[in-house]
């Protein structure tokens, strides 16, 4: 199991060390042990069933999960490689499912408290904010500093722009939780957000891959806008993208705490260079950074790629937008030609 001091193997054993949830774990095996033996021991010692196990092994073979392509791969061949185990224990899965069930359960109305009169209080707005919100916030308790993650989730819930968008679109989300970075990371992509069952649960990647910090707030907030759009539209079609961009604009506009709108309702928020982010591509309801065979390639939302080179983020996004316009026009022309050819 995990140890601060590196244990040593005997002549008839090998010691395999890997990383799980940011912690180093060392396990002893016989010299002839295979990848299947590793999976079985992890299930027994760490209580992570094979169905929850994923191994990121670098260099090759890369991402492996049971049933393995080569279950007889000797562990001795992996001793010099970096191994990351991605997977939650049975207890962690049960805890998450219990939180989802509790957050989704019908709520019994509590005792009615006498309201304190307030001259300028918009009580209709107060009631809507209580109804259209994230009803439960849940950090991952097994990651470092869950209290910081909770504060981050609270900041998102209480963001003036997010609250306004939730009321406008009548979004009521039972559970907002953080995503384990290791569970949705490969060589090619990093998932930043997930939406389960059209808004039953929204997961956001708050932390950096090494668990040692938190990602930029506005990037995560934009991810949340994307996932909220999935409450209405599943596929990434025109309906989805129109709603996604509408929510993003509404959040920026109504974020008066950060200067989105002045007292006179005059919009003056102008994104600076630091406010523009390389989004990469959205795949299957997930926000993916990177992609392609090179770290200098950006995959845009329509699936095309733009070479980053020495361009700034703003220039990369502009080029990606140009590529999307070209593809859209090409698709429209092809559709028009097909319709003309089929007409009698």
UniProtKB/TrEMBL annotation:
Question: Which spans does this entry mark as compositional bias, Basic and acidic residues?
Answer: 322-337
Query: What Gene Ontology terms describe what this protein does at the molecular function level?
Result: proteasome binding
Q: Record's Pfam families?
A: WLM
Which segments constitute the WLM domain?
125-326
Show the segment(s) annotated as Disordered: 255-275, 322-344
The name this protein goes by in its record: WLM domain-domain-containing protein
Give the species this sequence originates from.
Answer: Clohesyomyces aquaticus
């Amino acid at each position: 199991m995990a140890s601060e001091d590196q244990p040593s193997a005997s002549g008839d054993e090998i010691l395999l060390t890997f990383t799980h949830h940011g912690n180093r774990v060392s396990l002893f095996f016989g010299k002839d042990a295979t990848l299947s033996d590793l999976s079985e021991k992890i299930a027994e010692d760490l209580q992570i069933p094979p169905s929850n196990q994923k191994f990121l092994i670098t260099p090759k073979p890369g991402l492996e999960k049971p049933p393995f392509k080569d279950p007889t791969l000797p562990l001795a061949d992996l001793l010099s490689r970096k191994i990351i185990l991605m997977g939650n224990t049975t207890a962690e899965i049960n805890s998450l499912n219990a939180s989802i069930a509790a957050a989704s359960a019908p709520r019994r109305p509590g005792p009615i408290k006498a309201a304190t009169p307030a001259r300028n209080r918009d009580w209709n707005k107060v009631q809507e904010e209580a109804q259209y919100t994230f009803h439960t916030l849940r950090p991952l308790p097994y990651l470092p500093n869950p209290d910081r993650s909770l504060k981050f989730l609270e900041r998102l819930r209480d963001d003036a722009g997010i609250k306004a968008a939730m009321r406008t679109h009548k979004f009521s989300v039972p559970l907002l939780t953080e995503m384990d970075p290791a569970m949705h990371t490969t060589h090619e992509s990093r998932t930043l957000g997930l939406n389960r069952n059209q808004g039953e649960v929204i997961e956001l990647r708050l932390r950096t891959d090494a668990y040692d910090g938190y990602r930029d707030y506005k990037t995560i907030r934009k991810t949340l806008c994307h996932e909220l759009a999935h409450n209405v539209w599943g596929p990434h079609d025109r309906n989805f993208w129109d709603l996604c961009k509408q929510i993003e604009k509404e959040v920026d506009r109504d974020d008066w705490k950060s200067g989105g709108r002045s007292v006179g309702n005059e919009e003056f928020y102008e994104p600076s260079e630091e406010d523009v982010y390389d989004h990469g591509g959205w795949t299957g309801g997930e926000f993916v950074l990177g992609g392609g065979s090179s770290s200098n390639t950006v995959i845009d939302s329509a699936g095309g790629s733009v070479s980053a080179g020495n361009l700034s983020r703003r220039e990369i996004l502009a080029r990606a937008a140009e590529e999307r316009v070209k593809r859209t026009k090409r698709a429209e022309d092809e559709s028009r030609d097909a319709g003309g050819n089929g007409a009698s």
